[in-house]
């Protein structure tokens, strides 16, 4: 809708100025007056009528449409801002997870290094054990499993415990550098824990474990009593199975007996 | 340790040798084999295929099977043909046999097969010579490449064999090969059993097993892959493999497929043995070269040991190896080794 000022400008551009005396000379004794605001309203009415007659939206509907569009636009802005906020939170979480992963990987590398050290110490202990055994009994077979015996493994753990105690004692008696001895003790604690875990695993493989019991054979007979105990109709009694002849085992038995110190 | 052989003097002052007590049982995925000493100084091995096939039950079929001496069992209203006959029938009808065991262990999906296995084992073992006779049966070692557990498998067969009147003992399958094939090397070396479901390895020093493990690939793996590439049933692939081909010189597309997968299996087993040795855990040290003995039904194919030696030469094995050979009785070697253990009372 045209503003009133625009109407005034348009009227001023198209109007002629005349004095009252000039109008009187022209025989005009009375004139009709109309305000610019009224003309603006008339124009607006005319436009609305014209739009209505043309089948377009009336101003009310246009206003409603504009208001609706404005509201949708504001909703879209709010939604977008919310998405941005969620994305920022996710990004922060991802950064935190990446940092955590890097920390875990560093710890894994450190523990792997400690494990490699513990393994090499065990292998060394095994070598020493083998060397110590050979003069004592050259014919004796290597122990089942072939690595350090449970005794040498326990000796290593005892030695580590003694070393820890030593360091702790030195730390208590030294007043000048308590922090460093605490650091050393903490590092030894960590190494001892890792070594204990590894020793436990090796011990289980060697058959040495802190657990008790569990060696008794398990009888699964009860699980399939019905299947196995039931007698089934068959002709198996009349059927010969395929037989193959094989070389005797007397030689094998003789050699085994000789190996074990028999006749 | 107790020796179950004995010598009984007769009234005339002469002696006669009593056949040694003890029986060995190879519980294999593809075949079951029971070994017993005979009175001629050798051994007799009863072998039966570890498979069955169910067919509709009627009087005509039952009579026909009996007439043809085909072993069957009536179970859950069906006729179940068991053993080698099931394998042959499956080939004729283009069907697959059902297998009580898979990948070296009793198959959890074939619980119905337990009565069948009991019948086969009872048939091949026979009655014990005396109550509580030792029966050593083979069990696989735990696998490097799959997560399996042999406790249930071992417990099941222990119970089953005890119920037949024997005193059951388990022995590692690779260790049994050591007992049967490495007597000349003071039972020191590597025993390899190439079975249907698995390949088992045992490294032993003077009969003491130092290290045992398995990989879950065997003859069945070859059959499955050959069947896949050729588009045939697995039973057909098995019979192709067993009819006498030479994997060094395949003569047809089918034989080529078999040769390719055999070589792949051998390479896989060798690489895993090498990796196990190099892992350094529980490894013995051998100052002298040791022998490798191969056995098992899967090793019976023509050219096996030559291909094995070819593949072995390609890898840098961490310990010195002397002879590489295949048992002359590859199919029955494990059962023979179990029999040795039973006879000497080994635990």
How do the strands and helices of this protein lay out in sequence?
The complex is a heterodimer of chains A (263) and B (347).
Chain A: H1 4-14, H2 20-25, H3 36-53, H4 59-136, H5 150-173, H6 178-206, H7 225-229, E1 242-246, H8 250-259
Helix pairs in contact in A: 1-3, 4-6, 5-6
Chain B: E1 7-9, E2 15-17, E3 23-27, E4 31-37, E5 43-49, E6 52-56, H1 59-67, E7 72-75, E8 78-82, H2 84-93, E9 101-102, E10 105-106, H3 114-125, E11 133-139, H4 151-163, E12 166-172, H5 173-181, E13 189-194, E14 199-205, E15 208-215, H6 219-230, H7 234-242, H8 253-278, E16 290-295, H9 304-314, E17 321-326, H10 333-344
Parallel strand pairs in B: 3-11, 11-12, 13-16, 16-17
Antiparallel strand pairs in B: 1-2, 3-4, 4-5, 6-8, 7-8, 9-10, 13-14, 14-15
Largest sheet of chain B: 5 strands, mixed
Biggest pleated-sheet summary of chain A: none
Mean pLDDT of chain A: 73
Order of helices and strands of chain A: HHHHHHHEH
Give a count of the beta strands of chain B, DSSP E runs of length 2 or more.
17
Helicity level of chain A, as a percent range? 55-70%
Question: How many strands appear in the DSSP assignment of chain A?
Answer: 1
Question: In angstroms, what separates the terminal alpha carbons of chain B?
Answer: 8 Å
Fraction of residues of chain B in helices?
Answer: 25-40%
- Report the C-alpha radius of gyration of chain B, rounded: 21 Å
Categorize the overall geometry of chain A.
Answer: elongated
């Amino acid at each position: 809708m045209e503003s009133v000022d625009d109407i005034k400008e348009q009227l001023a551009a198209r109007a002629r100025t005349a004095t009252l005396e000039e109008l009187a000379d022209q025989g005009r004794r009375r004139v009709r007056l109309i305000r610019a605001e009224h003309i603006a309203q008339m124009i607006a009415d005319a436009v609305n009528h014209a739009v209505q007659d043309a089948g377009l939206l009336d101003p009310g509907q246009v206003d409603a449409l504009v208001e609706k569009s404005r509201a949708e636009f504001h909703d879209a802005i709010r939604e977008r801002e919310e998405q941005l906020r969620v994305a920022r939170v996710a990004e922060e979480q991802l950064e935190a997870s990446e940092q955590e992963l890097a920390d875990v990987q560093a710890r894994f590398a450190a523990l792997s290094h400690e494990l490699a050290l513990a393994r090499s110490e065990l292998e060394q202990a095994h070598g020493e054990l083998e060397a110590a055994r050979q003069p004592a009994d050259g014919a004796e077979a290597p122990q089942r499993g072939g690595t350090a015996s449970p005794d040498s493994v326990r000796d290593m753990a005892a030695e580590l415990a003694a070393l820890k105690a030593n360091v702790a004692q030195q730390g208590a008696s030294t007043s000048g550098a308590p922090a460093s001895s605490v650091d050393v003790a903490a590092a030894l604690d960590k190494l001892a824990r890792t070594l204990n875990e590894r020793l436990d695993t090796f011990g289980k493989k060697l058959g040495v474990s802190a657990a008790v019991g569990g060696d008794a054979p398990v009888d699964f007979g009860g699980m399939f009593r019905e299947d196995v105990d039931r007698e089934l109709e068959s002709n198996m009694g009349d059927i010969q199975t395929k037989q193959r002849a094989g070389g005797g085992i007397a030689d094998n038995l003789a050699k085994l007996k000789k190996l074990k110190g028999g006749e | 340790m107790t020796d179950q052989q004995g010598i009984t003097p007769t009234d005339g002052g002469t002696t006669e040798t009593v056949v040694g007590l003890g029986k060995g049982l190879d519980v294999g995925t593809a075949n079951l084999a029971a070994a017993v000493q005979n009175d001629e100084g050798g051994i007799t091995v009863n072998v039966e295929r570890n498979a069955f096939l169910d067919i509709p039950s009627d009087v005509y079929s039952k009579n026909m099977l009996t007439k043809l001496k085909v072993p069957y069992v009536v179970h859950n209203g069906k006729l179940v043909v068991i053993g080698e006959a099931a394998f042959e029938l499956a080939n004729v009808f283009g069907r697959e046999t059902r297998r009580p065991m898979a990948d070296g262990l009793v198959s959890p999906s074939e619980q119905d097969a337990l009565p069948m296995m009991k019948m086969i084992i009872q048939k091949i073992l026979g009655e014990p010579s005396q109550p509580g006779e030792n029966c050593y049966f083979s069990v696989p070692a735990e696998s490097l490449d799959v997560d399996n557990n042999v406790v249930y498998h071992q417990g099941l067969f222990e119970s089953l064999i005890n119920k037949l009147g024997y005193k059951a003992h388990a022995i590692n399958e690779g260790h049994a090969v050591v007992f049967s094939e490495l007597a000349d090397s003071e039972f020191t070396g590597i025993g390899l059993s190439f079975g249907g479901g698995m390949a088992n390895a045992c490294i032993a020093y003077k009969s003491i097993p130092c290290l045992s493990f398995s990989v879950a690939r065997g003859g069945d793996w070859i059959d499955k892959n050959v069947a896949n590439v050729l588009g045939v049933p697995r039973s057909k692939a098995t019979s192709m493999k067993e009819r006498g081909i030479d994997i060094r010189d395949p003569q047809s597309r089918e034989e080529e497929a078999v040769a390719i997968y055999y070589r792949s299996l051998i390479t896989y087993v060798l690489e895993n043995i090498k990796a196990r040795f190099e892992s350094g855990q529980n490894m013995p040290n051998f100052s002298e070269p040791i022998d490798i003995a191969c056995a098992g039904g899967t090793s019976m194919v023509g050219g096996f040991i030559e291909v094995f030696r070819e593949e072995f030469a390609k890898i840098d094995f961490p310990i010195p190896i002397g002879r590489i050979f295949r048992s002359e009785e590859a199919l029955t070697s494990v059962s023979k080794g179990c029999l040795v253990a039973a006879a000497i009372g080994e635990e």
